[in-house]
Amino acid sequence: MMDKKKKAGIIVDVLMFALLLIQMLYVFTGNTAHEILGIGFFACVVIHIIIKRWWCASLFKKRESKRSKLRLTSDIITVLLICCIIALMLSSMGVSRLIFPWFEYLGSADLHRYLATAVLSLAALHGGMYFIIRAKKKKKAITLTALAVIAAAAVGLALVPYMNRHFKKVDISLSEKVSGDKAEWTGGRVLTVYFTRLGNTDFDDDVDAVSGASLMIADGELMGNDQLLALMMQDITGCDIKPVTITGKRYPSSYNDTIGVAMDEKRNNARPAIEKIDISGYDDIVLIYPLWWGDVPMPVATFLEENDFSGKHIYLIATQGSSGFSSSTATVKKLASGASVEEVMSIYCDDIPDSRQRLYEWVKNR
Ligand SMILES: Cc1cc2nc3c(=O)[nH]c(=O)nc-3n(C[C@H](O)[C@H](O)[C@H](O)COP(=O)(O)O)c2cc1C
After folding, report:
1. Is the CB of 165 within 6 Å of ligand 1?
2. pLDDT digit string (tens) for 196-241?
3. CA separation for the pair 263, 292 (Å, rounded)
4. Atom of ligand 1 nearest to the CA of 197
5. Global pTM?
């Protein structure tokens, strides 16, 4: 019969792994549940380490015989996992809005996501190594473990972000997300120029407002991600905002078809015609754009080439599904001749509705 300690250990391990998977589905659980379940996860980790404390002691023990290669690999994975869990715990506090709002370090949501994915994959490996080492029929155990690790990594790396972006409906209250503290724009006169799919696309009536489609519903109306950011900038600073709007053929309603069209445009270095935007009365331009194929969308390239930016400052805010600023900064520097160009922030598409505070802090402290 299995003793009580062992049973408790297995229950904690299963709970820990289940919590880790649930935590990856942040967009479905929401922030409050995510933070509370996060505490539960770290509590399970602490209990797991207490139960396995013999392993920590064995790490530093002098050995008569050499550690087998398998055990050495397993120990390295475990040490790495513990380091990542500690970093994840600190970054959880850094991004916390509910339980640890006073913790001001490691506040990057991107870092938090990367660490969570690393923990998930290493945890799967760590569990796998445990079974391999103990398995009598090694071949079968290795195959099963390899499958489990691939499945866990696939869930963490691909399936969760895919589900988040393609099945999560984004339905927001505009006043709740956009209105708030004001900050004065110091320096010159400022204009926010943004590009978004909405206004440049003939959407079908039944298009899905999911974050992966770069769309949301705000107060019952369709809204573009970057449009929402522009409205936030306007509310914070009182600045004028202007969209980049194409005048020719519009983009297709389907997200995937738009990807194809955008690829052709980038390949051909196209300059789609746009409505004129007069920037002559402004010193500072805040340029908000989605990354399209790691670059500015080609209509934004048109805007940059058509205007005289001599002596002006351009502040870049990119939105993206993973890629930071990619090569967009270099493109803006090349096309907006005479301007000084500064990267401000690159926002992951799921984080856009909750980005007002970041924008406000930037304007206040710049
Ligand atoms: C045509 C197209 C290409 C894209 N290319 C990238 C890319 O290269 N890298 C990335 O991280 N995200 C990419 N995305 C995701 C968008 O940058 C992201 O969803 C953005 O928030 C969309 O903003 P919008 O709703 O204002 O159009 C692409 C989206 C589209 C539609």
Report:
1. no
2. 998 899 877 666 555 454 567 888 888 889 999 999 999 999 999 9
3. 8
4. 27
5. 0.69
